């Protein structure tokens, strides 16, 4: 299959130059881009930079066709005020001045009635640009608005990794190409991180390295595997424990390495004595032979690179599963070798000082923090979600689409429908969240403003300069924050009044990196640390330098640890001392005999790109993938309409009967707009917002449901 968008010669005769920028979307790759620019000031083709050693000339198809998005006929171009009832779809075009005045007046009113915490700035990763994404925090701190605990995406995976290593960094991801075995665990890289495949496939071509893929269904990455392991959702830790059991049993464990670099290898070995392949087989659905073969492969291959993704972290035991999978590399001593070790995210290597950008100097620790994932509960007055304080009656939303992407969708929509809630949304399209707003503001796209990016899945800090002019009536995020600060009386606070370029320059200077002008020439900074640091050969990130087989789940480190006011979250007491399978997932039961995962689609990125015709056409329609034996038992044929439901609600969608998952497992690929579903309700009707131990998060791939053929 074609994994890459090839670099080709310029095709259009009116291309006058090639601009250089960065993909801004919520993806670990942060690809360096080359963009054809025409004499008319428009973009042409978009392709990956061959000069960037991680991007290596390869990008995903959805970004390659970005002109389809930036010039979309339904792009939001003017500020709008709601007319009529919320969600009715009647709008009045207004000026920017009137729109900003209306928002500021609504915030002042909310604060007067219920205090400053009644206003909640709500944002996320629609852009990963440091300035355009995070400036909203400066306004929040200055005005003492409710805090935003960004729990929805990374918490479980990051926490599980850092609980072991003590730091969020790892081997150079480009060195995957130097591996003798590549294990892609819990990420559908072909669909969501195509650059991972670039370097993995290079290892296979140049070194004969087998690619092992571990996931819950036969997705496009699984089809690229030399060894594919399809297990039951939420059981990854059982597989990891069995692999470590075999490593101790058969002499693959590097005892000398563990004696130097791990906290309690003897305790781990004793714990694992009963975690046999037979034990893991009963839990995972893998055969004993599959588990033994995988354990033997990685045990006898010193230069094994474990590329650990986010997917298996999005279970209620996801933090423990990440830590268990990570521990395999430590038991085997894989960290010692070029092309070996375990990589998840490089967030710690960039050292960006964003204190001025985010206004952290005037943050008030007494202001409550509200959980992003529980927006439905917050807006419907749940006392626990509100931290037993007053209501939220005003929202400013940038870079996210919670009416579509947040769990417990029925609660979310109920909350947005409240007449007493004022909502301002700054967006590129009239999303389903924007449709529920009182005021909508049109936003620039990444090619139309300056920003700085850091690539969690790789090793570069990258400059994304403005390449084309936006439409006259469209404004960047920073503009909105600055104008509201003026109207709300805080524009004199430090950090306000600066342009994007000034923010970038000052952030880089405060972080010890070259400034904006230097980056315009260099395009990126390679921040990858030296081999010994990246592979923890001077010690792991804890004061004693030891990897933690036995982490402190209640007090250990995490890049996004909740504030003291929230404390540990979820069933922390159930977490194990050593790596183990913990059945805190939504296990199937008699009323809900199926487990549902809401996996990403190749042509969407969360709710982004669902608006572009080619992406929608390639994905087809919302469907649920059903294993053939389950379909036969229930009398369901391919293309039938089925109902899925649980205690949170039910939805209807079409069935796709395909092999490639365990019986009892359902897969719904792609975050389609709610309105694309048969009854106008999307897949997140079925997902829960209960916090995952120990530090929160949303378990999107962990839902028990019932399934039946629709006979209406």
UniProtKB/TrEMBL annotation:
<dbReference type="GO" id="GO:0043546">
    <property type="term" value="F:molybdopterin cofactor binding"/>
</dbReference>
<dbReference type="Pfam" id="PF04879">
    <property type="entry name" value="Molybdop_Fe4S4"/>
</dbReference>
<dbReference type="InterPro" id="IPR009010">
    <property type="entry name" value="Asp_de-COase-like_dom_sf"/>
</dbReference>
<protein>
    <submittedName>
        <fullName>Reductase</fullName>
    </submittedName>
</protein>
<dbReference type="GO" id="GO:0046872">
    <property type="term" value="F:metal ion binding"/>
</dbReference>
<keyword id="KW-0408">Iron</keyword>
<dbReference type="InterPro" id="IPR050612">
    <property type="entry name" value="Prok_Mopterin_Oxidored"/>
</dbReference>
<keyword id="KW-0479">Metal-binding</keyword>
<dbReference type="GO" id="GO:0016491">
    <property type="term" value="F:oxidoreductase activity"/>
</dbReference>
<keyword id="KW-0411">Iron-sulfur</keyword>
<dbReference type="InterPro" id="IPR037920">
    <property type="entry name" value="YoaE_C"/>
</dbReference>
<dbReference type="InterPro" id="IPR006657">
    <property type="entry name" value="MoPterin_dinucl-bd_dom"/>
</dbReference>
<dbReference type="Pfam" id="PF00384">
    <property type="entry name" value="Molybdopterin"/>
</dbReference>
<dbReference type="GO" id="GO:0051536">
    <property type="term" value="F:iron-sulfur cluster binding"/>
</dbReference>
<dbReference type="InterPro" id="IPR006656">
    <property type="entry name" value="Mopterin_OxRdtase"/>
</dbReference>
<feature type="domain" description="4Fe-4S Mo/W bis-MGD-type">
    <location>
        <begin position="16"/>
        <end position="74"/>
    </location>
</feature>
<comment type="similarity">
    <text>Belongs to the prokaryotic molybdopterin-containing oxidoreductase family.</text>
</comment>
<dbReference type="InterPro" id="IPR006963">
    <property type="entry name" value="Mopterin_OxRdtase_4Fe-4S_dom"/>
</dbReference>
<dbReference type="Pfam" id="PF01568">
    <property type="entry name" value="Molydop_binding"/>
</dbReference>
């Amino acid at each position: 299959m074609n994994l890459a968008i090839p670099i080709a010669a310029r095709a259009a005769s009116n291309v006058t130059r090639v601009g250089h920028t960065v993909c801004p979307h919520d993806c670990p790759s942060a690809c360096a881009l080359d963009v054809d620019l025409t004499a008319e000031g428009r973009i042409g083709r978009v392709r990956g930079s061959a000069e960037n050693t991680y991007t290596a000339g390869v990008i995903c198809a959805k970004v390659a066709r970005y002109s389809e998005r930036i010039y979309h006929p339904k792009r939001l171009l003017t500020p709008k005020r709601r007319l009529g009832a919320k969600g009715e779809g009647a709008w009045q075009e207004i000026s920017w001045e009137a729109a900003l005045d209306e928002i500021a007046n609504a915030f002042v009113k909310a604060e007067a009635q219920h205090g400053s915490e009644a206003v909640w700035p709500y944002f996320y990763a629609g852009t990963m640009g440091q300035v355009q994404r995070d400036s909203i925090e400066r306004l929040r701190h200055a005005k003492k608005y409710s805090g935003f605990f960004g729990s929805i995406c990374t918490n479980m995976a990051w926490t599980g990794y850092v609980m072991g290593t003590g730091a969020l960094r790892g081997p150079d991801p480009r060195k995957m190409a130097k591996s003798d075995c590549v294990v892609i665990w819990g990420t559908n890289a072909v669909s969501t991180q195509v650059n991972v495949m670039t370097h993995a496939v290079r290892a296979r071509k140049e070194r004969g390295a087998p690619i092992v893929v571990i996931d819950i269904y036969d997705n496009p990455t699984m089809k690229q595997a030399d060894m594919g392991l399809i297990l039951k959702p939420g059981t990854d830790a059982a597989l990891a424990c069995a692999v470590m059991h075999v490593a101790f049993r058969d002499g693959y464990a590097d005892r000398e390495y563990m004696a130097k670099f791990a906290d309690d290898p003897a305790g781990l070995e004793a714990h694992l004595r009963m975690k046999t392949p037979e034990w893991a087989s009963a839990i995972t659905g893998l055969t004993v032979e599959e588990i033994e073969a995988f354990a033997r492969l990685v045990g006898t291959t010193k230069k094994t690179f474990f590329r650990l993704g986010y997917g298996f972290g999005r279970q209620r035991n996801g933090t423990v599963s990440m830590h268990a999978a990570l521990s395999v590399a430590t038991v085997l001593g894989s960290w010692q070798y070029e092309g070996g070790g375990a990589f998840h995210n490089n967030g710690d290597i960039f050292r960006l000082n964003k204190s001025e950008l985010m206004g952290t100097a005037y943050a008030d620790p007494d202001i409550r923090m509200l959980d992003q994932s529980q927006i439905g509960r917050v807006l419907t007055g749940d006392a626990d979600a509100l931290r037993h304080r007053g209501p939220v009656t005003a929202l400013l939303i940038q870079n996210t689409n919670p009416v579509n992407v947040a769990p417990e969708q029925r609660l979310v929509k109920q909350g947005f429908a409240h007449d007493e809630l004022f909502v301002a949304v700054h967006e590129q399209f009239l999303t389903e969240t924007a449709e529920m707003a009182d005021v909508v503001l049109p936003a620039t796209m990444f090619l139309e403003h300056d920003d700085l990016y850091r690539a969690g899945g790789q090793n570069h800090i990258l400059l994304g300069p403005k390449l084309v002019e936006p439409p006259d009536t469209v404004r960047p995020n920073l503009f909105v924050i600055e104008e509201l600060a003026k109207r709300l009386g805080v524009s004199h606070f430090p950090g306000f009044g600066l342009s994007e370029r000034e923010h970038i320059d000052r952030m880089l200077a405060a972080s010890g990196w070259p400034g904006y002008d230097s980056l315009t020439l260099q395009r990126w900074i390679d921040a990858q640390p030296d081999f010994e640091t990246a592979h923890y050969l001077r010690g792991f990130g804890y004061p004693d330098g030891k990897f933690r087989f036995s982490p402190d789940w209640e007090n250990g480190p995490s890049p996004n640890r909740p504030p003291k006011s929230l404390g540990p979250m979820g069933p922390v007491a159930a977490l194990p001392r050593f790596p183990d399978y913990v059945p805190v997932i939504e296990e199937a039961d008699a009323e809900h005999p199926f487990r549902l995962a809401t996996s990403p689609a190749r042509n969407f990125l969360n709710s982004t790109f669902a608006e572009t015709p080619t992406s929608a056409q390639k994905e087809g329609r919302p469907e649920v993938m059903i294993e053939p034996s389950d379909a036969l038992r229930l009398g369901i044929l391919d293309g039938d309409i089925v109902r899925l439901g649980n205690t949170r609600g039910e939805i209807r969608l079409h069935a796709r009967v395909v092999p490639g998952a365990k019986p009892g497992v359902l897969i719904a690929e792609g975050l389609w707009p709610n309105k694309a579903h048969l009854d106008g309700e999307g897949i997140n009707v079925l997902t829960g917002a209960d916090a995952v131990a120990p530090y929160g998060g949303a378990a999107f791939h962990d839902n028990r449901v019932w399934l039946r053929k629709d006979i209406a």
